[in-house]
Recover the amino acids of this structure.
């Protein structure tokens, strides 16, 4: 089975602050970067013990250059670097037997979700697809679904794991920590988390035949609430976006991949809407 | 007759450097030319009114779009002030205007001997074409005025800018206030002489308004943008409706010109955030 791994960082065991996740941090980030990689490695090793073979890892955190090559097996493929049009789901295509999301975190606005956000913490206040409030995990799972690929494994804090199982009960989830508010955690040790992830990944592959495809029904309507009104001013400029309120917009399209890209365009354009000097 | 005035700054008499038109660096130079810019707008208003124009809307269209010295304008004009207007330099254009004036305008990006030539965002837009026509800001803005049936009546700026507009819209009254020498030098008449010429030109423009035509892009309208850098095209391609036509080129087609115009604004704004990832 070919396996797609999207690895984020905030949901790694022990992580509870942006300093640990920010690549420009010289002290804490290098430590947690290694834990992030070891969790990815654990997921790959577990999957392979249960029969997965070809693995593609898409680095999905921050500038998307967190990979430590010496922590990964030499025969995986890695998608690295920022500004991929499909971002955290770049490289998905028909042919993968399943997807793993490691180190994932809760959606913006979720209580006890450690470092909870949805793509950009400073412009996306809420995003809904066909009325469903979305986390990165849901947005990305639907991209997997678009290509006929089921989500098999998700690792992160208890809140994001519970959330994903509400929508996709077939997903094997590995809870590596409990959030205490936004910036604190009651966590397993990295080594214990890696052991659980290894076992969970093997289980996920063994249960793959029970997994279903998660999709949004076409036409897909995206409702986007921006953090600040000037961000909505900018997003409204893009063809197809309809302003529905001071800080709200909608975008509808038959094709979810187009909606996903419109979402990427929206939060990127919103980042230009800094306050006017 | 109501007149819509879009006033830019690079084409004001004497202007030949970014420092003179940079509202944000607070150089003594800027404050001098800010006054000249306002005086040229006043001259256009006076000339238009001497020939019978009445209501005036002035849309500050330069940089942060709050350059005009409001005390120096007639008390009964309407001012559009501030940045990020969805229709930018022609925001608020509608069918109630009998004509449009473009003052202080400048050449398109890539024009030779056009001081400070650029097209909206010099760091992003390498070339803009609509229906195959290479566009300056004046062309793009005239297209929006034309959509509402409003003809451009007057353009002021350097020789290249004015002649470029007149080659596309021969009915436009052009007032040449300077000859540019490359991108950063100019052989200019004095501000006072420029204001006098603009006053006379504006009056002529109103008197000849009957011969002017709206400048209209025929649907389907095809916008092609060449970008300065490939990563800007990467970002703009994400905007719904844009097609990538080359490493540094994109294309957008729509029947409705305001939609095309806003797509262009979205594109140059999106391009501006495509700097190097750190």
């Amino acid at each position: 089975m070919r396996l797609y791994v999207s690895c984020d960082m905030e949901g790694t065991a022990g992580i509870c602050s942006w300093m640990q996740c920010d690549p420009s941090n010289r002290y804490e980030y290098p430590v947690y970067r290694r834990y992030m990689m070891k969790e990815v490695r654990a997921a790959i090793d577990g999957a392979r013990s249960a029969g997965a073979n070809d693995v593609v890892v898409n680095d999905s955190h921050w500038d998307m250059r967190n990979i430590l090559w010496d922590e990964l097996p030499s025969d995986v493929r890695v998608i690295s670097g920022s500004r991929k049009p499909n971002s955290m789901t770049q490289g998905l295509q028909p042919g993968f037997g399943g997807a793993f999301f490691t180190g994932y975190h809760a959606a913006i606005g979720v209580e006890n979700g450690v470092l909870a956000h949805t793509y950009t913490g400073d412009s996306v206040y809420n995003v809904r697809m066909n009325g469903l409030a979305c986390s990165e995990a849901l947005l990305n799972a639907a991209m997997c679904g678009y290509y006929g690929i089921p989500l098999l494994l998700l690792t992160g804090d208890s809140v994001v794991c519970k959330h994903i199982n509400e929508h996709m009960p077939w997903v094997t989830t590995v809870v590596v920590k409990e959030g205490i508010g936004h910036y604190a955690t009651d966590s397993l040790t990295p080594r214990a988390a890696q052991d659980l992830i290894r076992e969970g990944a093997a289980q996920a592959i063994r249960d793959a035949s029970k997994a279903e495809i998660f999709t949004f029904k076409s036409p897909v309507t995206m409702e986007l609430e921006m953090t600040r009104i000037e961000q909505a001013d900018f997003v409204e400029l893009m063809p197809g976006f309809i302003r529905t309120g001071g800080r709200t917009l909608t975008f509808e399209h038959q094709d979810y991949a187009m909606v996903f890209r419109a979402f990427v365009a929206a939060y990127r354009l919103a980042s230009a809407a800094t306050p006017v000097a | 007759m109501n007149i819509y005035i879009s006033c830019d700054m690079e084409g004001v008499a004497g202007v030949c450097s970014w420092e003179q038109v940079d509202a944000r660096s607070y150089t003594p130079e800027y404050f001098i030319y800010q006054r000249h810019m306002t005086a040229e707008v006043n001259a256009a208003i006076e000339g238009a009114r001497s020939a019978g124009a009445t209501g005036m809307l002035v849309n500050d269209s330069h940089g942060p779009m709050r350059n005009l010295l409001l005390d120096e304008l007639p008390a009964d004009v309407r001012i559009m002030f501030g940045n990020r207007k969805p229709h930018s330099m022609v925001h608020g254009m509608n069918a109630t205007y009998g004509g449009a004036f473009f003052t202080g305008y400048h050449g398109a990006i890539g024009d030779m001997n056009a001081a400070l030539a650029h097209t909206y965002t010099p760091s992003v837009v390498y070339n803009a074409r609509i229906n195959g026509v290479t566009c300056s800001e004046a062309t793009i803005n005239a297209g929006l005025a034309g959509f509402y049936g409003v003809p451009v009546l007057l353009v002021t700026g350097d020789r290249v800018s004015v002649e470029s507009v007149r080659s596309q819209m021969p009915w436009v009254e052009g007032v040449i206030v300077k000859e540019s020498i490359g991108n950063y030098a100019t052989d200019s008449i004095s501000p006072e002489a420029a204001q006098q010429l603009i006053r006379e030109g504006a009056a002529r423009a109103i008197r000849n308004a009957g011969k002017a035509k709206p400048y209209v892009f025929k649907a389907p309208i095809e916008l092609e943008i060449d970008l300065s850098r490939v990563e800007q095209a990467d970002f703009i391609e994400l905007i719904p409706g844009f097609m990538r036509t080359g490493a540094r080129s994109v294309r957008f087609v729509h029947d409705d010109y305001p939609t095309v115009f806003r797509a262009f604004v979205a594109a140059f704004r999106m391009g501006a955030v495509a700097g190097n990832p750190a």
About this structure: The mean pLDDT of chain B is 96. The interface with chain A takes residues 24, 64, 82-84, 86, 231, 234-235, 237-241, 252, 254, 259, 262-263, 265-266, 269-270, 272-274, 277-278 of chain B (CB under 8 Å). The two ends of chain B are 53 Å apart (CA to CA).
